[in-house]
Amino acid sequence: MLKIIAAHDSAFLIGNKNKLPWKVEEDIEHFRNEIKGKIIVLGRITYESLLQIKDNLDVSKIIVLTSNLNYDPKDDKVIVFHKVFDILRYSQDNEIYICGGSKIYEEFLPYVDQMIITEIKGRYEGDSYFPLYNKNDFKLIKEKKLSDQATVKYLNHLKKESKQY
Ligand SMILES: NC(=O)c1ccc[n+]([C@@H]2O[C@H](COP(=O)([O-])OP(=O)(O)OC[C@H]3O[C@@H](n4cnc5c(N)ncnc54)[C@H](OP(=O)(O)O)[C@@H]3O)[C@@H](O)[C@H]2O)c1
Predict the structure, then answer these.
(1) d(CA 111, CA 4)
(2) What is the pLDDT of residues 82-113, one digit of tens each?
(3) pTM of the model
(4) CA 112 / ligand 1 centre spacing (Å)
């Protein structure tokens, strides 16, 4: 089982200089609750941007995707993968949360079962975006208002690629 979890603003912005463009505590809390005890996947850039707080994330494992074959995070909780398909294969027996960033969302989007998207109201400044996708490929199954500024949408993928990995 593969899920994307992300937050974007009204223009699908997700990041600014490797940080979140906003401070929305309710969304941080929601994110922490959703990934609690789970296996998460991070692109190398997002992983490095979270180094200061990664020990406070209550997850069972962090998978980092990088092309660097010598990458060694020196952390027992972290596993390094070098290929998208190896993670897809791993997701057949494990529930995995794809936690960004932009490149990682783009690469995994065709294969996810569900997206958990926080819509942050308004437009912010930044340089990193959630990939374009066809809304008709997803079905809204649940909506949760976190605050006046943030609403979470649970979207099931209707056209998930069913390649054999
Ligand atoms: N709003 C949100 O929900 C949210 C969540 C997470 C992140 N973000 C934001 O997203 C931005 C970062 O996104 P990003 O696209 O720059 O970086 P990223 O997706 O975090 O990481 C990209 C890196 O992942 C590795 N990678 C990607 N595809 C690969 C593949 N097929 N095989 C091997 N390695 C692969 C590469 O690492 P190497 O260069 O080491 O090969 C690549 O440079 C930041 O601004 C961050 O704050 C936002």
Answers:
(1) 10
(2) 999 999 999 999 999 999 999 999 999 999 99
(3) 0.97
(4) 17
